[in-house]
Amino acid sequence: MRLIFAGTPEFAAQALAALIAAGHDIPLVLTQPDRPAGRGMKLKASPVKALALRHGLRVEQPERLKDAASWAPIIEAKADLMIVAAYGLILPQGVLDIPRLGCINIHASLLPRWRGAAPIQRAIEAGDAQTGITLMQMDAGLDTGAMLSKAALPIAADDTAGSLHDKLAALGAREIVALLPRLEAGTIRAEAQDENLATYAKKIGKADAAIDWRRPAIELDRQIRAFNPVPGAHALLAGETVKLWHARPAEGRGAPGEIVALGRDAITVACGEGALALLELQKAGGKRLPAAAFLAGNPLTVGQHFEPPAGA
Fold this sequence. Notes:
Residues 203-298 form the Formyl transferase C-terminal domain. The chain has 312 residues and is of the alpha/beta class. The protein has helices at residues 10-21, 47-54, 72-77, 93-96, 119-126, 161-185, 217-226, 291-297; strands spanning 2-7, 25-30, 35-37, 42-44, 59-60, 81-85, 103-107, 115-116, 130-137, 147-154, 200-201, 233-237, 240-250, 259-262, 267-270, 275-283, 289-290, 306-307. It folds into two domains: 2-201, Rossmann fold; 206-307, Methionyl-tRNA Fmet Formyltransferase, Chain A, domain 2. The longest helix has 25 residues, at 161-185.
């Protein structure tokens, strides 16, 4: 098929790579403008742009698509279909109507659960048993279009947002390649979403990752995994911010935030229910360290307290 591809991060790049490998004609790739990154804050191309240029594909990077004047490359491409994956720009109805078969979104949840910006993180945070990929015919709403295909994936007890992202990116790439022959043959039946089952995965802010020790340990474990690697769950200890990268629920009793045990591989902290064994930590400006190495450079004592989050 003749495709336009619109996407920006690594999640999208995997889908683009699969479509290229499958032999589809891709006359145009849309991605976000280059952004400053790294210590030098030099402009850096998105993973999708880097991949597209390696394959000699035309790349356009509009700041927005609200103005019809910016649609010219999309019209010129004369595409059968646009594939969209984590693009980051809103596509107005006028753009959705340009390709012959419209636009399909690769969404990282089992819609209608977790529409919106952060479906991977919110699924882990909520304790969902599974997530997956939905291929959706796009409309003007926020992830509200009819579903063309769904593929489920279990969420493992040790999955982080990073590990689940990688699994879903690979699944999404396989699913979109498998869908296109069926779509071209006209054997796909679209299914409307049940609005009564819809949930919203709101954009993540730094406050979402602040640890409140009054919550149950099982919820804090999910919170730490949901925000690994970005933005990283964080807590206050002796007035300093410490990021918590790896933890597990554990036995222990004490006041919320109290260090109740120091072991070879864990710092155990009491929570509102149960306790949390901290296995990997990082002080501001430092490296991620296993608990033993963290303790070697930051001696702690049983009875010492992590502090409540600001405003608690």
